[in-house]
Amino acid sequence: MTATMPVACVIGWPVKHSRSPVIHRFWLKELGLAGDYVLQPVEPDDIAGFFRDLPKSRYVGCNVTVPHKEAAFAAVARREAAAEETGALNTIWIEDGRLVGTNTDPLGFLANLDAEAPGWDAKPGPAVVLGAGGAARAIVWALLARGFAPITVVNRTPQRATAFAARFGNRVIPAGFDKLPALVGTATVLVNTTTLGMHGQPPLRIDLSPLADTAVVNDLIYVPMETPLLTAARARGLRAVGGLGMLLHQAVTGFEHWFGQRPRVTPALRAEVLKSIEAG
Ligand code: NAP
Fold first, then answer.
1. Beta strand pairing call for 91-95 and 189-192
2. How does pLDDT run across 202-240, given as a tens digit for each residue?
3. Which of 118, 120, 122, 188 is nearest to 152 (CA)?
4. How far is the CA of 198 from the centre of ligand 1 (A)?
5. Is 205 in the same domain as 255?
6. Is residue 150 located within the same domain as residue 260?
7. How far is ligand 1, taken at its centre, from the CA of residue 137, in Å?
């Protein structure tokens, strides 16, 4: 390790729950690269100063987590399309002394399904996305990019679904959970982006029997790995994909910018991150 080795970080407040150091340190070691990836707590009052000083700091860039995503979106000099069009940004690097940012969640989502359910997008049709929060924006943007339409966004708070859909135009339709039974049978892909099913939250229980046999079910949640939704989908004989792969695949872009090599998502990486999650 030398004073000039590249160091990236994840900023948040708090930030100690982040698994990103486990992922990036695994890749640095696997690829034999000098570098490090650390947790960097930043208090909300200090965030403007952090971004101002970032180009001259010891860091080559950062991941951004709660509550700094909005500040990051505003702070960068240039946003890639995935950030601009989803209105969210989670990865920053430095080009010619200026901050550049993107949202790596859409790519992570697509790469996870490509890997775990090959051919899932061969015949893109109607999709159902549960939830209208930050993650849902990445998912809807990615599904539209792969040709899925219409996409119905089903949310507990109707106003949020309506505002969400308006951002994407007429290929995205807002709905309440009362409409779900009628919608399920139309979906070629169904994605849960709500927190229902997460450790400590109520389970997501929906009747999957009307889904077509070829439909794919994806849950963004990865704690626990096997959610009630995934169990129900498997019991119904459907392809069911969990959220851990998205977490791993979304990290690839940042690593490549900061450390100069494109890493791979492998079973060994998955095992390492799982071990860390299980350790709490
Ligand atoms: P968020 O912005 O807070 O949105 C949460 C969503 O969950 C909202 O649509 C909210 O509905 C809904 N919700 C919460 N409690 C509910 C309940 N009791 N009944 C029905 N709906 C409920 O969160 P987010 O950032 O989008 O993250 C959502 C989930 O995705 C989290 O579990 C997160 O861990 C996961 N995620 C995973 C990855 C990955 O890499 N695998 C990446 C990003 C996010 P209202 O609008 O009605 O409140």
1. unpaired
2. 999 999 999 999 999 999 999 999 999 999 999 999 999
3. 188
4. 9
5. no
6. no
7. 11
